[in-house]
Amino acid sequence: MEQRAVRLIPPVLCTVVLVGGLYHAAVAVEEFGGARLTAFAAGMLALLALEAPGPGRAPADRLPALPLLVVRGVLFTAVAVVDGSGVSWALFVLVPFTAYPAFGRRVAIGCAAGCVVLLSAGLTVLVPQWWVRSVYASGVLVFGLGMVLALSLAGAAVRERESRARLEESYERLALYAERVAELSAVEERYAPGRGAPASRPPLPPSGRGTGNSRHRARR
User: Fold this and answer.
1) How many CB atoms lie within 10 A of CB 106?
2) Would residue 218 count as lying in a domain?
3) How many domains does the chain have?
4) Which end of the chain, N or C, is more open, meaning fewer C-beta atoms within 10 Å of its C-beta?
5) Which residue has the higher pLDDT, 184 or 217?
6) CA of 99: how far to CAs of 149, 197, 198, in Å?
7) Category of 86 on φ-ψ map: left (φ > 0), alpha (ψ -120 to 50) or beta
């Protein structure tokens, strides 16, 4: 999975939630309009500004991991409170999705469980005995499945990133080994016997045996 495609998931999801909320506001003006619509739109625009992709680093990439997670959680909760369509609860799948690469698998699972508990607590306060109503029960089930899918997707992205890092490290080691082997080969060729000698060699001195014979002839 391309890391660029993974970075596009938060802004795309925020855009979908914004369009869904505006459509609900256009259909049900009396239920969702005025101050609630303004607060919803302001919150979504803030999220889009936070997650906006660009040629460089996104604004979210410039913040530390823990404050960024807290800011996302606060904005998601604020948008969900003023949203009249209920579609903004889909934003909470980004909590474990973004927490996985920053804090690891255990923290991401804890964030996913906390989001499910938060949704259940909110329904308990707003809708008495929501668990006996199929609409709300199925909604919580789908929400939990979304958390599982977000964890799976984030885990796959993290594993791919780690694999690429290990592959790049292996390439760097191979390049270093190849460079060292080339240097050792050059040194071996430079100091190998018979290498680097001049083209015209001087005549070799006569051997000891030949010298003795010549002396013996001279005496005769």
Assistant:
1) 10
2) no
3) 1
4) C
5) 184
6) 14, 67, 69
7) left
Residue 87 lies in a domain: yes
Q: What is the pLDDT of residues 25-42, one digit of tens each?
A: 888 777 676 788 889 989
Give the span between the Cα atoms of 20 and 3, in whole angstroms.
27
Look up residue 72 and give its two tokens.
């996302």
Cα–Cα distance for residue pair 78/118, rounded to 1 Å? 13
Closest CA to 14 of 36, 35, 34, 41: 41
Q: How far is CA 154 from CA 126, 139, 143, 149, 199, in A?
A: 32, 22, 16, 8, 68
Place of tokens 């013996």: 216
| Residue range of the domain that includes 115 | 3-167
Task: Assess if residue 200 is contained within a domain.
Answer: no
Nearest to 40 by CA among 16, 24, 21, 59: 21
Residue with tokens 């609409």: 135
Is 214 a member of any domain?
A: no
Residue 139 identity (one-letter amino acid): G
Averaged pLDDT for residues 52-64:
64
Q: Mind listing the pLDDT tens digit for each residue in 63-91?
A: 688 888 888 889 999 998 888 778 888 99
Structure tokens at 52: 């906006």
Closest residue by Cα to residue 136 from 151, 119, 149: 119
**Which pTM was predicted?**
0.71
